[in-house]
């Protein structure tokens, strides 16, 4: 982190001023801890203004923000380099037109997040493995990414529905009560329980939908519809 970044954090109210002795500003462990906290929240996708508001809300809010992303993160993220595209998408080379197009599609879809200097954060190796399995079935990566892009639109809508359910039924009453300190454990517990319930619900609904879609397709091919 540059000196300029640190000074900008101070000007935004994100970081306390250093202890000044003479013309030298000294930063201690509390400054380092705050900088690490800011970096973690930024990596989770929060803007600096959102981080400033959370930090102003006290330790409970920052802990809750970290818990939100921990609850819904699959914990498998890793950093890969541009030259590793052949391991992400076997048979493709980043220097070819097809390879470049697939890489761009993966970034647009959010599977890869550019970090600069030819480095990318692979946000879900699980999805990458699924893509490799689809390629093994003979499905081109561009087609698999297109299907994933279409599916993501619907999945995002489902995700918003479950998050809204949490906000309306759990968070809103807590907020209306003035954020009582003794209720924070229940708020965090509810968040922890939401993830498996949401994932299980989506999986169950997906199984039903796949069965219905497959049945319809078979009937159409057989001339029954």
> How many domains?
2
Mean pLDDT: 81
Report the oligomer: single chain
Strand content range: 5-15%
Poorly predicted tracts of residues: none
The description of the largest β-sheet is: 3 strands, antiparallel
- The radius of gyration over CA amounts to 23 Å
Name the helix and strand elements from N-terminus to C-terminus, one letter apiece: HEEHHHEHHEEHHH
SSE class: mainly alpha
Distance between the termini: 63 Å
Task: Name the helicity range.
Answer: 55-70%
Shape: flat
Counting H and I runs of at least 4 residues, what is the number of helices?
9
User: What's the β-strand tally?
Assistant: 5
As laid out across the biggest beta sheet, the strand order is 3-5-4
């Amino acid at each position: 982190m540059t000196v300029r970044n640190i000074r900008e954090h101070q000007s935004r109210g994100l970081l306390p001023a250093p202890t000044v002795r003479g013309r030298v500003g000294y930063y201690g462990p509390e400054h380092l801890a705050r900088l690490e906290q800011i970096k973690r929240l930024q990596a989770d996708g929060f803007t600096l203004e959102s981080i400033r508001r959370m930090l102003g809300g006290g330790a409970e809010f920052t802990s809750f923000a970290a818990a939100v992303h921990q609850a819904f993160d699959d914990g498998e993220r890793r950093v890969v380099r541009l030259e590793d595209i052949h391991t992400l998408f076997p048979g493709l080379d980043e220097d070819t037109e097809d390879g470049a197009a697939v890489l761009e599609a993966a970034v647009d879809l959010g599977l890869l997040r550019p970090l600069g200097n030819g480095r990318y954060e692979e946000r879900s190796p699980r999805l990458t493995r699924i893509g490799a399995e689809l390629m093994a079935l003979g499905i081109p990566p561009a087609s698999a990414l297109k299907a994933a892009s279409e599916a993501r639109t619907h999945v995002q809508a489902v995700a918003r529905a479950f998050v809204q359910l949490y906000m309306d039924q759990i968070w809103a009453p807590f907020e209306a009560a003035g954020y009582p300190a003794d209720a924070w454990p229940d708020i965090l517990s509810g968040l922890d329980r939401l993830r498996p319930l949401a994932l299980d619900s989506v999986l169950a609904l997906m199984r039903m939908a796949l069965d219905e879609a497959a049945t319809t397709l078979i009937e159409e091919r057989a001339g029954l519809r």
